[in-house]
Amino acid sequence: MGSVIMKATWIETLIGQYASETHVLEKYRDTLDLTDPAAAEEHETVSGMLADMRYALTWMRRGRRPGSRRGAEVTDVYRQREIYIKLSGQDISDAERLRLVDALLALSDRERTCFLLHMAQGLTLQDISHKLKLSKASIQDYVNRAKKKISEEFL
Questions:
Q1: Distance between CA 54 and CA 50 in Å, rounded?
Q2: At a CB cut-off of 8 Å and minimum separation 6, what does 139 contact?
Q3: How many CA atoms lie within 13 A of 50 on its CB side?
Q4: Closest by CA position to 102, among listed 53, 60, 138, 154
Q5: For residue 66, what pLDDT is reported?
Q6: Using CA atoms, how far apart are residues 68 and 71, in angstroms rounded to an integer?
Q7: Do 115 and 80 form a contact (C-beta atoms < 8 A)?
Q8: Helix, strand, or coil here: 128?
Q9: Which residues are CB-neighbours of 24 under 8 A, at least 6 positions away?
Q10: Closest CA to 96 of 9, 10, 2
């Protein structure tokens, strides 16, 4: 339970850092003189950076890709974040790492592939279905089965 609280604090810290740096960039962009061609180019670059930072902030706050029209259960969002953090190797003990590897090895090849592409790489179900040339419903089934197996084994 303590590691979940640490992970929630970690993401909140990251969100705070992104938000404060977004404000810094906005102030800098506002000071640029648009009559100067170099400053106008810098303004365009900074505007692009701000758009990227806002996109990342929205993703972190909502727990899913911005623009996604489908709602996500709050508990599922936190479970996804926890799995992703554990997959990325942060804050995980050797015993937890072994349990995670065992849980991943217990999945079928297709379940493991779909789960990792969706959860660790952040691909949408539609993107995965195009890559693997399978229906979106099949990808959803594989991901759901993998989540269920990992939840039973690991979480």
A1: 6
A2: 114, 118, 125, 128, 129, 132
A3: 16
A4: 154
A5: 65
A6: 8
A7: no
A8: helix
A9: none
A10: 2
The tokens describing 51, both together, are 């758009």
Least confident of 36-40, 103-107, 115-119, 132-136: 103-107
Token pair recorded at residue 89: 């190797």
pLDDT given at position 78:
44
Identity of the residue numbered 61? R
Distance between CA atoms of 117 and 139, rounded to whole angstroms?
10
Alpha-carbon dihedral angle through residues 17, 93, 73, 143, given to the nearest 10 degrees: 120
- Cβ 119 vs Cβ 84: under 8 Å: yes
Of residues 29 and 6, more confidence is placed in 29
Using DSSP's 3-state secondary structure scheme, residue 68 falls into coil
123 pLDDT tier (thresholds 50, 70, 90): confident
Q: Long-range CB contacts (< 8 A, 24+ apart) of 50-55?
A: 50/22, 50/25, 50/26, 53/18, 53/21, 53/22, 53/25, 54/22
Rounded to whole angstroms, the Cα distance separating 113 from 103 reads 13
In angstroms, rounded to a whole number, what is the distance separating the alpha carbons of residues 33 and 116?
Answer: 46
